[in-house]
Amino acid sequence: MNYFVSVEGEQFEIEVNGTELKIDGEVVDVDLAGLPGTSRRSLLLDGRSHAIAAEGRGGGVWVLDLDVGPVRVEVVDRAGLAIRELTRRVAAERGPRPLRAPMPGMVVKVEVEEGEVVGAGQAVVVVEAMKMENELSAEAEGRVKKVHVAPGEPVEKDQVLIEFGPVDDEETSDA
Amino acid sequence: MLESVLVANRGEIALRVIRACQELGVRAIAVFSDADRSAPHVLAADEAYRLGPAPASESYLRVDRILELARRSGAEAIHPGYGFLSERASFAEAVEAAGFVFVGPRSETIAAMGDKTEARRRMQEAGVPVVPGTVEPLVSGTDAVRIAEELGFPVVLKAAAGGGGKGMRVVRGKDEVERAFDAAAREASQAFGDGAIYVEKFLATPRHVEIQLLGDAAGQVVHLGERECSIQRRHQKLIEEAPSPAVDGELREAMGEAAVRAAEAVGYRGAGTVEFLLAGREFFFLEMNTRIQVEHPVTELVTGIDLVKWQIRIAGGERLDFGQADVTLRGHAIECRVTSEDPAHGFLPATGRVRSLLLPSGPGVRWDGGISTGVEIGLHYDPLLGKLIVHAEDRAGAVATMRRALRELRIEGVETCLPFHRRAMDDPDFQAGRFSIQFLEQRPDLLEGRLSSNARLAAALAAALLEHKRRDGFHPRTATGFREGSSLTAWQRSGWPWSNGG
């Protein structure tokens, strides 16, 4: 079975056959085990022992606790790859995902208005947490559909701040 | 011996003091904010009382509440830890006025050392070297030339009102002085509306080396050698060690004697630290910290002297039962401060709930922590989660033990600066002891770090995880090579949307 893994922008195609794993043309023995009730995994690659915590985030996304720090990986098989392409196309038609507060804090500034078109990475809301201002930006191009917060309002972690629609969604107000 | 001590602090230092109390047979009384109701220091203490809501201003900084709880619990003494109220002379005074013993120096000592100008004056009087320079602003460029020649080049011109490098000029020769003076004065008046400039001897790449002291009420003061604390990010120490790779026996004696003079000049009682800048073999007084310090364990490991127990014993009126000649250093100790700061994102404070905590153990390893599984890491307090400290026969051995222990230590649920420490221990310059207080400014690669060869490992693990999940779904028992002990729950948690051949 072939898997497609993306690690911090780098792409890998990995073939797994029984106890063998082929990566970058190199074949290594693989053995994976876990500890019940924990996220710890023991991965033996050609006998080399790696103890890693793997936290499943859903959708083929895992956060792995490596010595270099937490690393986000996304893995799909060939069918998954096709489904993901489809999801991406749908997402482009519907606009970016809603912007959520990454931490509890207070809204300092809302930089956009409903109906406004924003680009990927454009700052849209500033949230203050622990006396530090954090600029939050749109993940992709889209049109601001609804602004849920105003300056001075406290927000909880994961609270939806702004909803987006596709850019060409000028007249309609709901998706 | 004191009968009881109220610990007016939280986190790892509160737990450290509580442990010392319990080993001494002293009743340990904790106080807590609402955020810390189930914190390790509360669970460990003999008694615990609520201070107030989570913000420090409504809990750990409430002098009135702390004194009220001390009365209610019948505490004999109050230990301030570090941070919070520990260096407020007014707190020490209030504690004593209310009839409790303050575990620390006299309030006058705290006040004298807290005022930087006053501290500098007292140190000069006691013959402790301070960074040479003027305190009064210079009047002209020619004035600057004269004083710079007296001090010896290089010198640095600094804005009296300044900070952040504005109005600052390093001058290496006589010809440059007047032009630099004019430029610095211009810049200073633009930036701060005040063109006053003073001059100091320029220390290019000094180290931060500090001397640990213990003084008893009878006036005996001993020093316990130095700590090397040059590895700092924005004046925040990250790694400390004892002894310093830059200090030999002769220099240790000279610095120790100066520190003891400094302590005697202010009638020091308890545990304290004199911080110096060390340039070559010249050292200059920076400041005196009138409390226990975060990095005290490295001194404890190389001297075998328990500083926190001595704080409590001295506060109870005991005299030191050893002299300077009895203090010997054995081996080498290193401490890494483990904070909830994310090195991948400019050391931004991180939050979360500790989901899993695997602590290192084995020979030479000590963990002074303030967290446990299930504890919420918020933004109300200092991001220090704990300190990993190791002790070995020599420095190379200590680095090796620390590398090993840093691999064992795993904290899940909140980002930590552990990746930074692992990189630092692998760094040839750190291993060779070649660094100054500018080390991390010169080496941003250690702070930020890169993924490098680990991407392949991550990819291989991801593929193995998904392969196993797939096989688990189809034929749970026939998979060869993939044994997954963590049962289905791990996969259910992963929420894989296209599972089981769907």
Radius of gyration of chain B: 26 Å
Oligomer: heterodimer
On the 0 to 100 scale, the average pLDDT of chain B is: 90
How much helicity do the residues of chain B have? 25-40%
Structural class of chain B: alpha+beta
**CATH architecture designation of the largest domain in chain A:** 2-Layer Sandwich
Amount of beta strand of chain B:
15-25%
Q: What level of helicity do the residues of chain A show?
A: under 10%
The helix-and-strand class of chain A reads: mainly beta
Give a quick account of the main beta sheet of chain B: strands, pairing sense, barrel closure: 8 strands, antiparallel
Return residue spans of chain B where pLDDT drops below 50 for at least 5 consecutive residues.
474-502
Arrangement of strands in the largest sheet of chain A: 1-2-3-4-5-6-7-8
Count, helices of chain B: 18
Based on DSSP secondary structure assignment, what is the total number of beta strands of chain B? 22
**The level-1 CATH class of the domain at 4-103 in chain B:** Alpha Beta
Would you kindly provide a written description of the structure presented here, covering whatever features stand out?
The complex is a heterodimer of chains A (175) and B (502). Chain A has one helix and 16 strands. With 175 residues, chain A is mainly beta. In chain A, the strands form three sheets. An eight-stranded antiparallel β-barrel of chain A has the order 1-2-3-4-5-6-7-8. In chain A, strand 4 and strand 5 form a beta hairpin. The two termini of chain A are 38 Å apart. The model of chain A has no long low-confidence stretch (mean pLDDT 85). Helix content of chain B is 36%, strand content 24%. Chain B contains 18 helices and 22 strands. In chain B, strands 13-12-9-10-11-14-21-19 form an eight-stranded antiparallel beta sheet. In chain B, helix 4 packs antiparallel against helix 5 and helix 12 (395-408) packs antiparallel against helix 13. Chain B starts with a strand and ends in an 8-residue tail after the last helix. At the A-B interface, strand 1, strand 2, strand 4, strand 5 and strand 6 of A face strand 16, helix 13, helix 17 and helix 18 of B.
